[in-house]
Amino acid sequence: MTLTLQMFKEMIAAAGEAIRAEEKRFSELDAAAGGDGDHGTAIVTAFQAMEKAEGADFKSYLKSLSETLQNEACGSTSTLYGSWLQGMSDTAPAGATELNAATLAKVFNGGLEELGYVTPARIGGKTLMDALIPATEALLAAHSQGIVTMFEWAAAAAEQGAEATCEMRAKFGRAKNLGERSIGPRDAGAASMACIFASFAKSIKAAC
Amino acid sequence: MAMKKFINDPANLTKELLEGLVLCYKGRVKLVSDRIVMRATPKDESKVAIVTLGGSGHEPALSGYVGEGMLDASVVGDVFAAPGAPKLLEALRLLKRDAGIVLVTLNHAGDRMSASKALRDAEKEGIKVREIVTHDDISAGIDADPEDKRGLAGCVPLYKVIGAAAEAGKSLEEIVDIGERFNRQVATLAVAMTGCTHPQNGEPITVLPDDEMEIGMGQHGEAGGGRTKILTADETAARMIALLMQATGVKAGDTALLIINGVGATTLMEMLIVYRKAAQILADKGINVTSGACGEYLTVQEMGGFQMILCKLDADHREYLSAPARTPYWNA
Fold first, then answer.
1. Residue B142 Cα distances to A161, B185, B261, angstroms
2. Cβ of A177 and B116 within 8 Å?
3. Reported ipTM exceeds the 0.90 cut
4. Average per-residue pLDDT in chain B?
5. CA–CA separation, B4 and B107 (whole Å)
6. B117/A118 Cβ within 8 A
7. Which terminus of chain B has fewer CB atoms gathered within 10 Å of its CB, N or C?
8. Which of A79, A113, A127 would you mutate first to test chain B, the one with the most B CBs within 10 A?
9. Is B220 noted as a catalytic residue in this protein?
10. Taking CB atoms and an 8 Å limit, are A76 and B113 in contact across chains?
């Protein structure tokens, strides 16, 4: 079982829809943890921008996603998602229009590695990395189970990672200034990342 | 309190102020691609270029220091917000040269992230660029992790020093070394007396009771923790200069530069009175105080207060500080 480019484009569209439906929740979480309260707007803008992306293979489509997003989204979301997608594009094999599970996991891992150059945040910093790192590790660990299962594992890992941020104290961004008061709500960036992986899993399952 | 400012559509603030800057100082700066302020006459490509980035709303910083002897370009974000990495990358591409580029990033999360991304992309394109991160604010504690210290107005004398070193034909490595050495010997402390409003949405950024002031407040009104009843100019100056002397390690026989940077609503009269006391204390300790500066260099809208900057100077720093500069808001 391989993932076709068309299926991947549908995954992105499904994630965009799920994100839009929860825009208000992401902004409220952001404000509650001491951020600017604009994460919902930022992530919705990012997915709207990505609707304009084009590409006839994974590499060029991912590059186009990264560029359209960076052109229109602003703030840290633009930089973080732009790096994530660019890292995936850099890792994707040239000309490929379908990816097997192992390559797909590598592509997602390439995205995470690129992101690691741009942010010092890792597990425990109360950021989107708390959801993305376990989700990517799940993809790498479960690729032999096939693409449906690997994304189910990733979605569960992202959700667990996002939930764990409730107990964390923010170390990055404006929420850092709140110190202890940032403990309690889920990190908005981790919450939206978990939402993205949940809709990826749903979209792939429906297509297979 | 309603916001009273001479503005038009708040969405156009940054665009309009940059247009004003380049119209007013057209012989010195020009605007490229909406958000990049560059020298009107480019520096010779055999010399290292100096670039910085940051949000608007802090005028004359940072774009007011683009010009001969200081910055080659400043990449501007929205009010109090970092510019995106693509815009910074565009500036790095425009200045690409064999001699290399120094990027000065003030330590604020958004600026750091855009800079990291642009540096990563520039590296992939073969653009030679090194970064200097400024973290002169000592309000988090003198021994705090540099990552926790914000970049305040201490970037301005740094621009002057490394800008002059670049004009003098120093190499990329030499300039980074001179800049990092300066970085280790500069310390800044801010004090706020009255708050300000965000010019785009009219929201108060910080509120201080009528009879209080706060030592250690950040550039965007972030709390610094040092709230007290209002002190006199001399008491405030004495308290601040003591901490800055400790942070820079300046001692008898050293040469130091003292700058008072008004952040918006504090008068030059007050700044000069504060300067006087701080300079007298330094002189009493046997420190040789060079000619300094009092004025608005990096502001926070109509916030009342100032930043006091103390730099311990090496011989080359002294030479570069007095070298010629011709920018909109710093001339030597």
1. 35, 12, 20
2. no
3. no
4. 94
5. 31
6. yes
7. N
8. A79
9. yes
10. yes
Q: Where in chain B is the domain with CATH 3.40.50.10440?
A: 10-184
* The model's pTM: 0.91
pLDDT per position as a tens digit, B156-204: 999 999 999 999 999 999 999 999 999 999 999 999 999 888 898 888 8
Identify whether B58 is a catalytic site residue. yes
Q: Which pLDDT band, with edges at 50, 70 and 90, does B220 fall under? A: low
> CA of B86 to nearest chain A CA: how many angstroms apart?
7
Q: Is the alpha carbon torsion for B42, B77, B119, B94 positive or negative?
A: negative
Q: State which amino acid sits at residue B327.
A: T
Percent of chain A topping pLDDT 90: 83
Measured between beta carbons, which residues in chain B are less than 8 angstroms from residue A71?
Answer: 86
- Which residues of chain B neighbour A177 with C-beta distances below 8 Å? 222-223
How many contiguous H segments (helices) and E segments (strands) does chain B have? 8, 13
Task: Identify the pLDDT of residue A57.
Answer: 98
Query: Going by C-beta distance under 8 Å and a sequence separation of 6 or more, which residues neighbour residue A160?
Result: A134
For residues B24-53, give the mean pLDDT.
Answer: 97
pLDDT averaged over chain A?
A: 94
* Residue intervals in chain B for CATH 3.30.1180.20: 186-313
CA-based nearest distance A190→chain B, Å: 18
- Chain B residues lying within 8 Å of A174, measured CB to CB: 109
Coil vs helix vs strand at B231: coil
pLDDT at B231 over 60: yes
Enumerate chain A positions whose Cβ falls within 8 A of a Cβ in B: 70-71, 74-76, 78-80, 82-83, 114, 117-120, 172-174, 176-177
- Comparing B58 with A177, which gets the higher pLDDT? B58
Instruction: Write down the CATH number for the domain with range A2-207.
Output: 1.25.40.340
Ramachandran sector of residue A200 (left: φ over 0; alpha: ψ -120 to 50; beta: rest): alpha
What is the CATH number assigned to the segment(s) B10-184? 3.40.50.10440
Question: Do A126 and A171 meet the contact criterion of CB atoms below 8 Å apart?
Answer: yes
The upper half-sphere exposure of residue B140, i.e. CA atoms within 13 Å in the direction of its Cβ, equals 18
- Which of B321, B296, B307 shows the shortest CA–CA distance to B219? B307
- Region B79-88: what's the mean pLDDT? 92
Return the CATH architecture of domain B186-313.
2-Layer Sandwich (3.30)
User: Residue B308 has what DSSP assignment?
Assistant: E
Q: Is B1 a residue whose pLDDT tops 60?
A: no
